[in-house]
Structure prediction request, 236 residues.
Amino acid sequence: GHLNTRIDRVTPLDNPAVNGPWVCNKARDLARMFERERAEQAMVQREVVDLDVAIRAAAELIASAKHAVALVSSWGSNEELAAFHAALGPSFTSFVKADWVVQPGERVEDDVLIKPDKNPNSAAARAMFPALPADVAQAIPADTDLVFVWGEGAPFAAIPSSARVVLLTSYQLPENTRADVLIPISVQTERNGHYTNFQGVVTGFEQCFVKKASVADAQPLFESIFAASSHMAGAR
Prediction:
């Protein structure tokens, strides 16, 4: 029943500019990461809704926010980062977070392939936005009334209890219940795009699975949220 619907093994794509014929163990772990239970339904106040309803709810929160902060994904593609920057960047004070961190017992770094940063597009994200500081309160002060979370790794405990949360996520995680609006988004294997590595080398990736219709691609999603929030702001 899982034939051609799941990842069983990750193998290297020969790329002389980056890795030659080799792949690190973290890449082999991608199968386990991508095969976690997925978030597949949009939700508003923890009630399942259609995707367009969640988009309007997110747009309403953005349009009415006075001090909004965005936590940007370090797994977003170059195209998605550019779309966020253009469409929603002006609405937020934005910071790049580490979506994925070193796991217990994992090798942190070596002299060949393994780097401390376990996220594929930190370089491109940090070229657009500053990194989330260690003192999260500097980025998310007490008067923050909206936090837009794109991807994993957000410090939910540091978000003021009075702040509303819009969450774009691919997986079913305990912190999803903190979201006022949750929109499920596709993963790398369900779309095309490019990443920029720590050396500045840009490499493409291609879709190999079809996402569910209830799951959004982040790039057009940002544009849809922007259009809806602009319409709401203009109507006031």
